[in-house]
């Protein structure tokens, strides 16, 4: 597919851009450009453009506004030691994006087009890479139903868009480990639902319990299963791993209710290379507490594109709270974070072929 480049009438001045990049935060600062590709049933994907980032014009009857046909991905461009930029496993993002499209009755986009769209945006906005230590260029490809109609059926028109956001640290608190709240009255997803798809509705459902967690002095909320309300599933936007003293690591299985994280998959491979046994199996909230109290569980880590690998220090609920280890980052969590970040940034050898240079 050929991409047409549209001129930007008023790009951000270099001094203003550099000042903003000195402290970009997460998700509030955006680069100058975006990629847009249209889809019409019977015609397919067409009209690929790289142009100025601007507001969208939507008909009030656009399907996404009424029936929530929308999916997205989260990925990053990383600065390499030689100054170049690279993506981390972008083909996995493209594959998961299409899996989400299938679940939401939306058209697939060719994986090579998905990746090229991301490459095009990074190329035109590479000067937006933040100068802060550990910074990255967060990339958000998304698709939504743009057809104007009110009948309940899959739309026939869609837009695929990629935007970029210079990013610093995901957690602003700066604490070495996060504190999480156990959701009591809310669940994130059910079997047969959309839990395995990266769609906005899943995140909308997490906002009330996430707000509750923040009121309780916590950073994140952890969800339990919808049936027995005892099996740990995932945080609002991250997968979980439980490190045991016997050299095994447990992570909740992919049963259709949690997102198949790309960072999760990468960590499973890295853990096994460390000689550890990774078990994808059910793990209850009561067992978590018991294993902490007995000393059987040494560390708990959360992972995701935005937060990479983050230690969980304290778990709170209406029944009280418990602290994992010393409440700070554990040895394995720190080691894995350093190795994964090293691979992403070209400091550690990429023996898996995960890094795509741009």
TrEMBL record:
Cofactor(s) named in the record: pyridoxal 5'-phosphate
GO MF entry, a single one: branched-chain-amino-acid transaminase activity
Modified positions (N6-(pyridoxal phosphate)lysine) in chain numbering: 198
GO terms under biological process: isoleucine biosynthetic process; L-leucine biosynthetic process; L-valine biosynthetic process
Pathway in which the depicted protein is active: Amino-acid biosynthesis; L-valine biosynthesis; L-valine from pyruvate: step 4/4; Amino-acid biosynthesis; L-leucine biosynthesis; L-leucine from 3-methyl-2-oxobutanoate: step 4/4; Amino-acid biosynthesis; L-isoleucine biosynthesis; L-isoleucine from 2-oxobutanoate: step 4/4
Reaction(s) catalysed (UniProt annotation): L-leucine + 2-oxoglutarate = 4-methyl-2-oxopentanoate + L-glutamate; L-isoleucine + 2-oxoglutarate = (S)-3-methyl-2-oxopentanoate + L-glutamate; L-valine + 2-oxoglutarate = 3-methyl-2-oxobutanoate + L-glutamate
EC number: 2.6.1.42
Recorded superkingdom: Bacteria
InterPro entries per record: Aminotrans_IV, Aminotrans_IV_CS, Aminotransferase-like, B_amino_transII, BCAT-like_C, BCAT-like_N, BCAT_family
Keywords linked to the UniProt accession: Amino-acid biosynthesis, Aminotransferase, Branched-chain amino acid biosynthesis, Pyridoxal phosphate, Transferase
UniProt-listed Gene3D superfamilies: 3.30.470.10, D-amino Acid Aminotransferase, subunit A, domain 2
Claim: Phosphoprotein is one of the keywords in the record: no
Transmembrane segments: none
Keyword Transferase included in the entry's annotation: yes
Family according to the record: Belongs to the class-IV pyridoxal-phosphate-dependent aminotransferase family.
Function: Acts on leucine, isoleucine and valine.
Name assigned to this protein: Branched-chain-amino-acid aminotransferase
Species annotation: Pontixanthobacter aestiaquae
């Amino acid at each position: 597919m050929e991409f047409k480049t549209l001129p930007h009438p008023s790009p951000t001045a270099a001094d203003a851009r550099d000042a903003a990049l000195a402290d970009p935060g997460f998700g509030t600062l955006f680069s100058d450009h975006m990629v847009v590709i249209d889809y019409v049933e019977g015609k397919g994907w067409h009209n690929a453009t790289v142009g100025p980032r601007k507001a969208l014009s939507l008909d009030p009857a656009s399907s996404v506004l009424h029936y929530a046909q929308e999916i997205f991905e989260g990925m990053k461009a990383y600065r390499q030691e030689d100054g170049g930029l690279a993506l981390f496993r972008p083909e996995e993002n493209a594959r998961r994006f299409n899996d989400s499209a299938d679940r939401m009755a939306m058209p697939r986009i060719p994986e090579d087009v998905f990746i090229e769209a991301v490459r095009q945006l990074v190329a035109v906005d590479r000067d937006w890479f933040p100068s802060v230590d550990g910074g990255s260029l967060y990339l958000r490809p998304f698709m939504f139903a743009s057809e104007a109609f009110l009948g309940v059926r899959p739309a026939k028109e869609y837009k695929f868009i990629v935007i970029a956001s210079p990013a610093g640290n995901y957690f602003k608190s700066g604490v070495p480990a996060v504190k999480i709240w156990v959701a009591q009255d809310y669940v994130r997803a059910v079997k047969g639902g959309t839990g395995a798809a990266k769609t906005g509705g899943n995140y909308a459902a997490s906002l009330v319990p996430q707000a509750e967690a923040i009121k309780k002095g916590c950073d994140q909320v952890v969800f339990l299963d919808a049936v027995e309300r005892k099996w740990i599933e995932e945080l609002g936007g991250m997968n979980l791993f439980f490190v045991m003293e016997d050299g095994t690591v447990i992570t909740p299985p992919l049963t259709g209710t949690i997102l198949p994280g790309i960072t999760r998959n990468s960590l499973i491979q890295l853990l096994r290379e460390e000689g550890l046994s990774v078990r994808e199996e059910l793990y209850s909230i009561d067992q978590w507490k018991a294993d902490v109290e007995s000393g059987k569980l040494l560390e708990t880590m959360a992972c995701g594109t935005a937060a990479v690998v983050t230690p969980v220090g304290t778990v709170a609920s209406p029944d009280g709270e418990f602290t994992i280890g010393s409440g700070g980052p554990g040895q394995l969590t720190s080691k894995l974070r350093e190795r994964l970040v090293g691979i992403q940034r070209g400091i550690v050898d990429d023996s898996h072929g995960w890094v795509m240079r741009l």
